[in-house]
Amino acid sequence: MPQPSSGADGFSVFGLDNKRAVTFFWVLLVGLTLLRLALAARLGVTPDEAYYWLWSQHLQSGYLDHPPMVALWIRLGTMLFGNGPLGIRFLGPVSALLGSLALYRAGRDLLGSPAAGYRAALLLNSTLMLGLGAATATPDTPLVFFLALVLWSLGRLIRTGQPIWWLAIGVFLGLAFDSKYTAVLPGLGCGLWALATPSIRRHWGWILGGILSGLLTIAPVLLWNAAHHWASFAKQGGRAGDWHPLRALNFLAELAGGQIGLATPIIFILFCLGLVWCLRRAGDDSVARLLACLCVVPVAVFVQHAFGGRVQANWPVVLYPAASLAAAATGRRIGLACALGLILTGLVTIQGIFSPLRLSAHHDVIARQTADWSGLTHRLREALPDDVSLVAGDYALATIIAYHDPAHALFSYDKRWAYLGRALQHPERAMLVLRDTEQPDLPASWLGAQDQRRFCRMLRNAPMVCYKLIPLTLPADMQMYRLP
Fold first, then answer.
1. Region 213-229: what's the mean pLDDT?
2. Count of H-run helices and E-run strands, the chain
3. What pLDDT was estimated at residue 9?
4. What is the tens place of the pLDDT at every residue in 146-167?
5. Average pLDDT, integer, range 17-24
6. Considering 10, 148, 164, 450, which has the largest number of Cβ atoms within 10 A of its Cβ?
7. Which tens digits make up the pLDDT trace of 298-311?
8. Among 157, 156, 168, which Cα is nearest to 209's?
9. How confident is the model at residue 242 (pLDDT cuts 50, 70, 90)?
Protein backbone atom coordinates (compact mmCIF):
# COMPACT_ATOMS: atom_id res chain seq x y z
CA MET A 1 0.00 0.00 0.00
CA PRO A 2 1.38 3.42 -0.86
CA GLN A 3 2.08 5.60 2.13
CA PRO A 4 -0.65 8.10 2.99
CA SER A 5 -0.10 11.62 1.82
CA SER A 6 -1.00 14.95 3.38
CA GLY A 7 0.33 14.96 6.90
CA ALA A 8 1.42 11.35 7.14
CA ASP A 9 5.19 11.83 6.94
CA GLY A 10 5.25 14.73 9.36
CA PHE A 11 2.13 13.74 11.31
CA SER A 12 1.05 17.37 11.01
CA VAL A 13 -2.33 16.82 12.62
CA PHE A 14 -2.34 20.07 14.59
CA GLY A 15 0.42 21.90 12.75
CA LEU A 16 3.16 20.49 14.99
CA ASP A 17 6.46 19.11 13.83
CA ASN A 18 7.04 15.36 13.99
CA LYS A 19 8.72 15.11 17.41
CA ARG A 20 6.38 17.53 19.11
CA ALA A 21 3.35 15.84 17.53
CA VAL A 22 4.37 12.41 18.81
CA THR A 23 4.96 13.82 22.30
CA PHE A 24 1.59 15.55 22.13
CA PHE A 25 -0.09 12.28 21.11
CA TRP A 26 1.22 10.31 24.07
CA VAL A 27 0.51 13.11 26.54
CA LEU A 28 -3.01 13.32 25.12
CA LEU A 29 -3.51 9.56 25.36
CA VAL A 30 -2.35 9.42 28.99
CA GLY A 31 -4.54 12.44 29.78
CA LEU A 32 -7.56 10.76 28.18
CA THR A 33 -6.90 7.62 30.21
CA LEU A 34 -6.79 9.60 33.46
CA LEU A 35 -9.97 11.43 32.47
CA ARG A 36 -11.72 8.13 31.73
CA LEU A 37 -10.60 6.73 35.06
CA ALA A 38 -12.00 9.82 36.80
CA LEU A 39 -15.30 9.43 34.96
CA ALA A 40 -15.38 5.72 35.77
CA ALA A 41 -14.89 6.43 39.47
CA ARG A 42 -17.36 9.32 39.59
CA LEU A 43 -20.44 7.96 37.82
CA GLY A 44 -22.88 5.68 39.56
CA VAL A 45 -23.21 2.11 38.34
CA THR A 46 -25.81 1.57 35.61
CA PRO A 47 -28.33 -1.30 35.67
CA ASP A 48 -26.53 -3.15 32.86
CA GLU A 49 -23.21 -2.80 34.68
CA ALA A 50 -24.83 -4.16 37.84
CA TYR A 51 -26.06 -7.08 35.74
CA TYR A 52 -22.53 -7.82 34.53
CA TRP A 53 -21.22 -7.32 38.08
CA LEU A 54 -23.60 -10.03 39.25
CA TRP A 55 -22.16 -12.28 36.54
CA SER A 56 -18.69 -11.55 37.92
CA GLN A 57 -19.82 -12.84 41.33
CA HIS A 58 -20.73 -16.15 39.67
CA LEU A 59 -18.09 -16.70 37.01
CA GLN A 60 -18.87 -19.28 34.36
CA SER A 61 -17.92 -19.83 30.73
CA GLY A 62 -21.11 -18.38 29.28
CA TYR A 63 -24.25 -16.42 30.02
CA LEU A 64 -27.60 -16.03 28.30
CA ASP A 65 -26.94 -12.56 26.88
CA HIS A 66 -23.21 -12.51 26.13
CA PRO A 67 -19.94 -14.45 26.42
CA PRO A 68 -18.09 -14.16 29.74
CA MET A 69 -15.23 -11.71 29.07
CA VAL A 70 -16.94 -8.63 30.57
CA ALA A 71 -17.63 -10.59 33.76
CA LEU A 72 -14.00 -11.67 33.97
CA TRP A 73 -12.78 -8.10 33.49
CA ILE A 74 -15.11 -6.84 36.22
CA ARG A 75 -13.95 -9.59 38.55
CA LEU A 76 -10.30 -8.62 38.00
CA GLY A 77 -11.06 -4.93 38.54
CA THR A 78 -13.08 -5.50 41.71
CA MET A 79 -10.33 -7.71 43.11
CA LEU A 80 -8.06 -4.65 42.88
CA PHE A 81 -10.42 -1.80 43.78
CA GLY A 82 -13.50 -3.33 45.37
CA ASN A 83 -17.09 -3.47 44.15
CA GLY A 84 -17.47 0.27 43.58
CA PRO A 85 -17.71 1.99 40.18
CA LEU A 86 -13.92 2.22 39.72
CA GLY A 87 -13.39 -1.47 40.39
CA ILE A 88 -16.16 -2.46 37.99
CA ARG A 89 -14.83 -0.20 35.20
CA PHE A 90 -11.08 -0.10 35.83
CA LEU A 91 -9.96 -2.31 32.96
CA GLY A 92 -11.92 -0.24 30.42
CA PRO A 93 -9.68 2.87 30.42
CA VAL A 94 -6.55 0.73 30.78
CA SER A 95 -7.52 -1.44 27.81
CA ALA A 96 -8.22 1.68 25.72
CA LEU A 97 -4.66 2.84 26.39
CA LEU A 98 -3.11 -0.53 25.53
CA GLY A 99 -5.43 -1.02 22.55
CA SER A 100 -4.40 2.37 21.18
CA LEU A 101 -0.78 1.26 21.31
CA ALA A 102 -1.72 -1.93 19.42
CA LEU A 103 -3.64 0.08 16.80
CA TYR A 104 -0.68 2.43 16.36
CA ARG A 105 1.58 -0.54 15.68
CA ALA A 106 -0.99 -2.03 13.32
CA GLY A 107 -1.08 1.22 11.35
CA ARG A 108 2.71 1.37 11.25
CA ASP A 109 2.94 -2.16 9.82
CA LEU A 110 -0.09 -2.16 7.52
CA LEU A 111 0.15 1.39 6.15
CA GLY A 112 3.92 1.65 6.10
CA SER A 113 4.28 4.71 8.30
CA PRO A 114 4.38 5.33 12.07
CA ALA A 115 2.46 8.54 11.41
CA ALA A 116 -0.43 6.53 9.92
CA GLY A 117 -0.56 4.48 13.11
CA TYR A 118 -0.75 7.61 15.24
CA ARG A 119 -3.50 8.98 13.01
CA ALA A 120 -5.58 5.80 13.31
CA ALA A 121 -5.20 5.65 17.09
CA LEU A 122 -6.06 9.34 17.41
CA LEU A 123 -9.17 8.92 15.27
CA LEU A 124 -10.42 5.99 17.36
CA ASN A 125 -9.77 7.85 20.63
CA SER A 126 -11.66 10.88 19.33
CA THR A 127 -14.92 8.96 18.91
CA LEU A 128 -17.57 9.12 21.59
CA MET A 129 -17.74 5.34 21.35
CA LEU A 130 -14.26 4.94 22.84
CA GLY A 131 -14.11 8.25 24.67
CA LEU A 132 -17.11 7.42 26.82
CA GLY A 133 -17.46 3.68 26.22
CA ALA A 134 -14.03 2.97 27.67
CA ALA A 135 -15.20 4.47 30.98
CA THR A 136 -18.05 1.96 31.28
CA ALA A 137 -18.17 -1.81 31.75
CA THR A 138 -19.80 -3.34 28.68
CA PRO A 139 -18.89 -6.23 26.34
CA ASP A 140 -17.87 -3.66 23.70
CA THR A 141 -14.81 -2.58 25.69
CA PRO A 142 -12.92 -5.91 25.63
CA LEU A 143 -14.24 -6.50 22.10
CA VAL A 144 -12.54 -3.36 20.74
CA PHE A 145 -9.34 -4.14 22.68
CA PHE A 146 -8.95 -7.64 21.27
CA LEU A 147 -9.84 -6.48 17.76
CA ALA A 148 -6.99 -3.96 18.02
CA LEU A 149 -4.73 -6.90 18.87
CA VAL A 150 -6.09 -8.78 15.84
CA LEU A 151 -5.10 -5.85 13.63
CA TRP A 152 -1.67 -5.69 15.26
CA SER A 153 -1.17 -9.41 14.54
CA LEU A 154 -2.30 -8.94 10.93
CA GLY A 155 0.18 -6.10 10.61
CA ARG A 156 2.96 -8.34 11.93
CA LEU A 157 1.91 -11.06 9.48
CA ILE A 158 2.16 -8.72 6.50
CA ARG A 159 5.23 -6.83 7.69
CA THR A 160 7.33 -9.90 8.58
CA GLY A 161 5.86 -12.42 6.13
CA GLN A 162 5.93 -15.00 8.94
CA PRO A 163 2.75 -17.15 8.76
CA ILE A 164 3.12 -18.19 12.41
CA TRP A 165 1.24 -14.97 13.20
CA TRP A 166 -1.94 -16.77 12.11
CA LEU A 167 -1.87 -18.52 15.48
CA ALA A 168 -1.99 -15.16 17.30
CA ILE A 169 -4.70 -13.91 14.93
CA GLY A 170 -6.81 -16.95 15.80
CA VAL A 171 -6.32 -16.50 19.54
CA PHE A 172 -7.18 -12.79 19.51
CA LEU A 173 -10.23 -13.34 17.29
CA GLY A 174 -11.28 -16.04 19.76
CA LEU A 175 -10.87 -13.67 22.71
CA ALA A 176 -12.88 -11.03 20.84
CA PHE A 177 -15.60 -13.67 20.31
CA ASP A 178 -15.42 -14.47 24.04
CA SER A 179 -16.22 -10.77 24.55
CA LYS A 180 -19.11 -10.42 22.09
CA TYR A 181 -20.52 -12.63 19.38
CA THR A 182 -20.30 -9.91 16.72
CA ALA A 183 -16.55 -10.63 16.58
CA VAL A 184 -17.48 -13.40 14.15
CA LEU A 185 -18.02 -10.66 11.52
CA PRO A 186 -14.40 -9.40 11.29
CA GLY A 187 -13.40 -13.06 11.56
CA LEU A 188 -15.38 -13.77 8.41
CA GLY A 189 -13.86 -10.68 6.82
CA CYS A 190 -10.39 -11.93 7.65
CA GLY A 191 -11.20 -15.30 6.09
CA LEU A 192 -12.59 -13.63 2.96
CA TRP A 193 -9.38 -11.63 2.61
CA ALA A 194 -7.25 -14.76 2.96
CA LEU A 195 -9.25 -16.55 0.24
CA ALA A 196 -9.02 -13.53 -2.09
CA THR A 197 -5.27 -13.00 -1.66
CA PRO A 198 -3.07 -15.63 -3.40
CA SER A 199 0.08 -14.79 -1.42
CA ILE A 200 -1.83 -15.27 1.84
CA ARG A 201 -3.75 -18.30 0.62
CA ARG A 202 -0.47 -20.19 0.34
CA HIS A 203 -0.31 -20.15 4.15
CA TRP A 204 -3.23 -22.58 4.26
CA GLY A 205 -1.54 -24.83 6.83
CA TRP A 206 -0.92 -21.96 9.21
CA ILE A 207 -4.39 -20.57 8.50
CA LEU A 208 -5.84 -23.91 9.61
CA GLY A 209 -3.63 -23.65 12.69
CA GLY A 210 -5.09 -20.19 13.36
CA ILE A 211 -8.60 -21.56 13.01
CA LEU A 212 -7.72 -24.31 15.49
CA SER A 213 -6.21 -21.84 17.98
CA GLY A 214 -9.35 -19.72 17.69
CA LEU A 215 -11.62 -22.72 18.24
CA LEU A 216 -9.64 -23.71 21.33
CA THR A 217 -10.01 -20.15 22.65
CA ILE A 218 -13.78 -20.15 22.24
CA ALA A 219 -14.24 -23.79 23.31
CA PRO A 220 -15.47 -22.90 26.86
CA VAL A 221 -18.21 -20.69 25.37
CA LEU A 222 -19.22 -23.42 22.92
CA LEU A 223 -19.32 -26.03 25.69
CA TRP A 224 -21.47 -23.79 27.90
CA ASN A 225 -23.92 -23.26 25.07
CA ALA A 226 -24.00 -26.96 24.27
CA ALA A 227 -24.81 -27.71 27.91
CA HIS A 228 -27.61 -25.10 27.92
CA HIS A 229 -29.37 -26.03 24.67
CA TRP A 230 -27.50 -23.32 22.72
CA ALA A 231 -29.58 -20.72 24.56
CA SER A 232 -27.17 -17.81 24.13
CA PHE A 233 -26.68 -18.42 20.42
CA ALA A 234 -30.43 -18.76 19.96
CA LYS A 235 -31.08 -15.50 21.81
CA GLN A 236 -28.55 -13.48 19.83
CA GLY A 237 -29.04 -15.22 16.49
CA GLY A 238 -32.82 -15.39 16.70
CA ARG A 239 -33.13 -11.84 15.40
CA ALA A 240 -31.64 -12.78 12.02
CA GLY A 241 -34.89 -14.18 10.64
CA ASP A 242 -36.95 -11.02 11.20
CA TRP A 243 -38.22 -9.30 8.05
CA HIS A 244 -40.00 -5.93 8.08
CA PRO A 245 -38.94 -4.22 4.83
CA LEU A 246 -41.56 -1.48 5.13
CA ARG A 247 -39.77 -0.21 8.23
CA ALA A 248 -36.28 -0.64 6.76
CA LEU A 249 -35.88 3.02 5.80
CA ASN A 250 -36.59 4.08 9.37
CA PHE A 251 -34.20 1.46 10.79
CA LEU A 252 -31.46 2.43 8.30
CA ALA A 253 -31.86 6.10 9.23
CA GLU A 254 -31.54 5.19 12.92
CA LEU A 255 -28.45 3.11 12.13
CA ALA A 256 -26.77 5.98 10.28
CA GLY A 257 -27.80 8.53 12.91
CA GLY A 258 -26.46 6.38 15.72
CA GLN A 259 -23.08 6.07 14.03
CA ILE A 260 -22.89 9.78 13.28
CA GLY A 261 -23.41 10.35 17.00
CA LEU A 262 -21.08 7.64 18.30
CA ALA A 263 -18.25 8.28 15.85
CA THR A 264 -18.93 12.07 15.85
CA PRO A 265 -19.99 13.60 12.51
CA ILE A 266 -16.68 14.37 10.77
CA ILE A 267 -15.01 11.15 11.87
CA PHE A 268 -18.03 9.24 10.55
CA ILE A 269 -17.49 10.91 7.18
CA LEU A 270 -13.79 10.01 7.31
CA PHE A 271 -14.70 6.39 8.08
CA CYS A 272 -16.97 6.30 5.02
CA LEU A 273 -14.35 7.92 2.79
CA GLY A 274 -11.74 5.47 4.09
CA LEU A 275 -13.94 2.50 3.24
CA VAL A 276 -14.56 3.84 -0.28
CA TRP A 277 -10.80 4.49 -0.66
CA CYS A 278 -10.00 0.88 0.30
CA LEU A 279 -12.72 -0.58 -1.93
CA ARG A 280 -11.36 1.28 -4.95
CA ARG A 281 -7.88 -0.14 -4.34
CA ALA A 282 -8.86 -3.60 -3.14
CA GLY A 283 -8.15 -5.23 -6.48
CA ASP A 284 -4.45 -4.36 -6.51
CA ASP A 285 -3.52 -3.76 -2.86
CA SER A 286 -3.74 -6.56 -0.29
CA VAL A 287 -3.82 -4.18 2.70
CA ALA A 288 -6.65 -2.15 1.19
CA ARG A 289 -8.42 -5.44 0.47
CA LEU A 290 -7.95 -6.53 4.09
CA LEU A 291 -9.38 -3.31 5.54
CA ALA A 292 -12.25 -3.40 3.05
CA CYS A 293 -13.14 -6.99 4.01
CA LEU A 294 -12.97 -6.21 7.73
CA CYS A 295 -15.41 -3.31 7.26
CA VAL A 296 -17.71 -4.52 4.47
CA VAL A 297 -18.77 -7.78 6.12
CA PRO A 298 -20.13 -6.10 9.30
CA VAL A 299 -21.69 -3.27 7.27
CA ALA A 300 -23.48 -5.76 5.00
CA VAL A 301 -24.79 -7.77 7.95
CA PHE A 302 -26.07 -4.70 9.82
CA VAL A 303 -27.74 -3.27 6.73
CA GLN A 304 -29.40 -6.63 6.12
CA HIS A 305 -30.51 -6.74 9.75
CA ALA A 306 -32.08 -3.28 9.37
CA PHE A 307 -34.60 -4.81 6.96
CA GLY A 308 -35.90 -6.90 9.82
CA GLY A 309 -35.37 -4.90 12.98
CA ARG A 310 -33.57 -2.12 14.80
CA VAL A 311 -29.75 -2.17 14.83
CA GLN A 312 -28.57 -1.01 18.24
CA ALA A 313 -26.19 1.93 18.00
CA ASN A 314 -23.32 0.11 19.70
CA TRP A 315 -23.33 -2.98 17.46
CA PRO A 316 -21.24 -1.45 14.63
CA VAL A 317 -18.37 -0.61 16.99
CA VAL A 318 -16.99 -3.97 15.88
CA LEU A 319 -15.68 -2.25 12.73
CA TYR A 320 -14.35 0.96 14.35
CA PRO A 321 -10.70 -0.14 14.72
CA ALA A 322 -10.47 -1.23 11.07
CA ALA A 323 -12.41 1.86 9.95
CA SER A 324 -9.91 4.06 11.81
CA LEU A 325 -7.08 2.47 9.85
CA ALA A 326 -8.99 2.88 6.60
CA ALA A 327 -9.58 6.57 7.33
CA ALA A 328 -5.90 7.03 8.23
CA ALA A 329 -4.87 5.35 4.97
CA THR A 330 -6.47 8.07 2.85
CA GLY A 331 -4.04 10.70 4.09
CA ARG A 332 -6.81 13.22 4.61
CA ARG A 333 -6.43 15.86 7.29
CA ILE A 334 -7.91 14.73 10.58
CA GLY A 335 -7.18 17.69 12.85
CA LEU A 336 -10.65 19.25 12.76
CA ALA A 337 -12.38 15.86 13.06
CA CYS A 338 -10.31 14.83 16.07
CA ALA A 339 -10.60 18.22 17.73
CA LEU A 340 -14.39 18.15 17.40
CA GLY A 341 -14.59 14.59 18.71
CA LEU A 342 -12.32 15.31 21.67
CA ILE A 343 -14.22 18.49 22.54
CA LEU A 344 -17.56 16.65 22.47
CA THR A 345 -16.13 13.83 24.57
CA GLY A 346 -14.60 16.31 27.00
CA LEU A 347 -17.86 18.21 27.41
CA VAL A 348 -19.85 15.05 28.10
CA THR A 349 -17.15 13.84 30.50
CA ILE A 350 -17.09 17.14 32.42
CA GLN A 351 -20.88 17.06 32.63
CA GLY A 352 -20.72 13.49 33.93
CA ILE A 353 -18.11 14.29 36.60
CA PHE A 354 -19.08 17.80 37.74
CA SER A 355 -22.61 18.41 36.33
CA PRO A 356 -22.01 22.12 35.62
CA LEU A 357 -25.18 22.30 33.51
CA ARG A 358 -28.33 21.90 35.57
CA LEU A 359 -30.09 19.75 33.00
CA SER A 360 -33.56 18.40 33.57
CA ALA A 361 -34.06 14.69 34.11
CA HIS A 362 -35.47 14.41 30.59
CA HIS A 363 -32.29 15.78 28.98
CA ASP A 364 -29.63 14.43 31.34
CA VAL A 365 -29.11 11.00 29.76
CA ILE A 366 -26.22 10.10 32.08
CA ALA A 367 -28.19 10.89 35.22
CA ARG A 368 -31.17 8.85 34.04
CA GLN A 369 -28.89 5.82 33.88
CA THR A 370 -26.79 6.35 36.99
CA ALA A 371 -28.31 8.75 39.55
CA ASP A 372 -29.82 7.85 42.93
CA TRP A 373 -30.24 4.09 42.57
CA SER A 374 -28.96 3.65 46.12
CA GLY A 375 -31.50 6.20 47.37
CA LEU A 376 -34.34 4.39 45.61
CA THR A 377 -33.22 1.06 47.03
CA HIS A 378 -33.08 2.51 50.55
CA ARG A 379 -36.56 4.02 50.28
CA LEU A 380 -38.04 0.78 48.95
CA ARG A 381 -36.51 -1.27 51.75
CA GLU A 382 -37.75 1.18 54.38
CA ALA A 383 -41.30 0.85 53.04
CA LEU A 384 -41.33 -2.96 53.25
CA PRO A 385 -42.35 -4.76 56.46
CA ASP A 386 -39.70 -7.13 57.75
CA ASP A 387 -41.55 -10.25 56.65
CA VAL A 388 -42.28 -9.05 53.09
CA SER A 389 -39.93 -9.86 50.20
CA LEU A 390 -39.28 -7.57 47.27
CA VAL A 391 -39.91 -8.92 43.76
CA ALA A 392 -38.69 -7.30 40.52
CA GLY A 393 -39.57 -8.80 37.17
CA ASP A 394 -37.30 -6.60 35.07
CA TYR A 395 -33.74 -7.97 35.14
CA ALA A 396 -32.11 -4.52 35.06
CA LEU A 397 -34.15 -3.19 37.98
CA ALA A 398 -33.57 -6.43 39.90
CA THR A 399 -29.79 -6.34 39.51
CA ILE A 400 -29.33 -2.66 40.37
CA ILE A 401 -31.35 -3.15 43.57
CA ALA A 402 -29.38 -6.31 44.37
CA TYR A 403 -26.11 -4.44 43.76
CA HIS A 404 -26.99 -1.64 46.18
CA ASP A 405 -28.48 -3.94 48.82
CA PRO A 406 -26.75 -7.34 48.66
CA ALA A 407 -27.54 -8.07 52.32
CA HIS A 408 -31.26 -8.57 51.66
CA ALA A 409 -32.83 -11.16 49.41
CA LEU A 410 -34.58 -10.00 46.28
CA PHE A 411 -36.68 -12.22 44.00
CA SER A 412 -37.33 -12.23 40.28
CA TYR A 413 -39.30 -14.43 37.92
CA ASP A 414 -37.18 -13.67 34.82
CA LYS A 415 -36.06 -17.01 33.37
CA ARG A 416 -32.56 -15.70 32.63
CA TRP A 417 -31.61 -16.27 36.28
CA ALA A 418 -31.86 -20.02 35.73
CA TYR A 419 -28.77 -19.72 33.49
CA LEU A 420 -26.93 -18.02 36.33
CA GLY A 421 -27.65 -20.85 38.74
CA ARG A 422 -29.83 -18.79 41.07
CA ALA A 423 -31.78 -20.74 43.68
CA LEU A 424 -35.55 -21.15 43.39
CA GLN A 425 -37.55 -20.24 46.50
CA HIS A 426 -41.13 -19.40 47.37
CA PRO A 427 -41.47 -16.04 49.16
CA GLU A 428 -44.39 -16.23 51.58
CA ARG A 429 -45.30 -12.56 51.39
CA ALA A 430 -44.08 -10.34 48.58
CA MET A 431 -44.51 -6.99 46.86
CA LEU A 432 -43.76 -6.30 43.21
CA VAL A 433 -41.77 -3.20 42.28
CA LEU A 434 -42.02 -1.70 38.79
CA ARG A 435 -42.16 1.65 37.07
CA ASP A 436 -45.32 3.60 37.78
CA THR A 437 -46.05 3.76 34.03
CA GLU A 438 -45.83 -0.03 33.53
CA GLN A 439 -48.46 -2.71 33.87
CA PRO A 440 -47.60 -5.97 35.69
CA ASP A 441 -47.05 -9.01 33.46
CA LEU A 442 -48.46 -11.36 36.11
CA PRO A 443 -51.99 -12.81 36.42
CA ALA A 444 -54.47 -10.31 37.85
CA SER A 445 -55.50 -12.82 40.51
CA TRP A 446 -52.03 -12.59 42.03
CA LEU A 447 -52.15 -8.81 42.42
CA GLY A 448 -53.43 -6.86 45.37
CA ALA A 449 -54.40 -3.22 45.65
CA GLN A 450 -51.60 -0.94 44.47
CA ASP A 451 -49.71 0.90 47.19
CA GLN A 452 -50.51 4.60 46.76
CA ARG A 453 -46.98 5.70 47.56
CA ARG A 454 -44.53 6.55 44.78
CA PHE A 455 -40.85 5.82 45.19
CA CYS A 456 -38.76 8.09 43.00
CA ARG A 457 -35.16 8.42 42.00
CA MET A 458 -34.24 12.03 42.61
CA LEU A 459 -32.14 14.45 40.59
CA ARG A 460 -31.37 17.75 42.35
CA ASN A 461 -34.35 17.30 44.68
CA ALA A 462 -36.77 16.68 41.81
CA PRO A 463 -38.33 13.30 40.91
CA MET A 464 -36.67 11.71 37.91
CA VAL A 465 -38.14 8.21 37.46
CA CYS A 466 -40.78 6.82 39.83
CA TYR A 467 -41.79 3.30 40.84
CA LYS A 468 -44.75 1.66 42.56
CA LEU A 469 -45.32 -1.34 44.84
CA ILE A 470 -48.07 -3.91 44.35
CA PRO A 471 -48.79 -6.66 46.92
CA LEU A 472 -48.53 -10.20 45.56
CA THR A 473 -50.48 -13.27 46.58
CA LEU A 474 -48.47 -16.10 45.09
CA PRO A 475 -49.72 -19.64 44.44
CA ALA A 476 -48.23 -22.28 46.72
CA ASP A 477 -46.31 -23.82 43.82
CA MET A 478 -44.97 -20.52 42.47
CA GLN A 479 -41.20 -20.29 42.87
CA MET A 480 -38.94 -17.39 42.04
CA TYR A 481 -35.21 -16.91 41.61
CA ARG A 482 -33.41 -15.44 44.58
CA LEU A 483 -30.79 -12.71 44.15
CA PRO A 484 -28.05 -11.70 44.58
1. 97
2. 21, 7
3. 42
4. 999 999 999 999 999 999 999 9
5. 78
6. 148
7. 999 999 988 888 88
8. 168
9. low
Instruction: Identify the H or E element spanning 380.
Output: helix 373-383
Angle between helices 286-306 and 184-196 in degrees, nearest 10? 140
**DSSP secondary structure, 338-354, as one string:** HHHHHHHHHHHHHHHHH
Please check the confidence at residue 6 and state whether its pLDDT lies above 50.
no
- Residue 206's φ and ψ, nearest 5 degrees, are -70, -35
Contacts of 67 (CB under 8 A, 6+ apart): 139, 177, 178, 179, 180, 181, 221, 232
Alpha-carbon distance of 479 to 413, in angstroms, equals 8
Considering only the C-alpha atoms of the chain, give the largest distance between any 2 of them, rounded to a whole number of Å.
Answer: 76
The answer to whether the bond into 463 is cis (omega within 30° of 0) is no
What percent of the chain lies above the pLDDT cut of 90?
A: 72
The larger pLDDT score, comparing residue 479 to residue 218, is at: 218
Mean pLDDT value of segment 25-39 = 93
How far apart (Å, rounded) are the C-alpha atoms in residues 134 and 60? 24
- Angle between helix 69-81 and helix 47-56 axes, rounded to 10 deg: 90
Contact 294, 190 (CB under 8 A): yes
Q: Where are the alpha helices (DSSP H) in 3-139?
A: 18-42, 47-56, 69-81, 85-89, 91-111, 114-125, 128-133
HSE of 195 in the Cβ direction (CA atoms, 13 Å)? 7
131: DSSP letter? H
Would you state the pLDDT for residue 109?
97
Burial of 256 (0-12, 13-18, 19+ CB in 10 A): middle
Amino acid, res. 45: V
C-alpha distance from residue 33 to each of 219, 337, 379 (Å): 33, 20, 36
Query: Do residues 64 and 55 touch, judged by C-beta distance below 8 A?
Result: no
Task: Give the per-residue pLDDT at 290.
Answer: 98
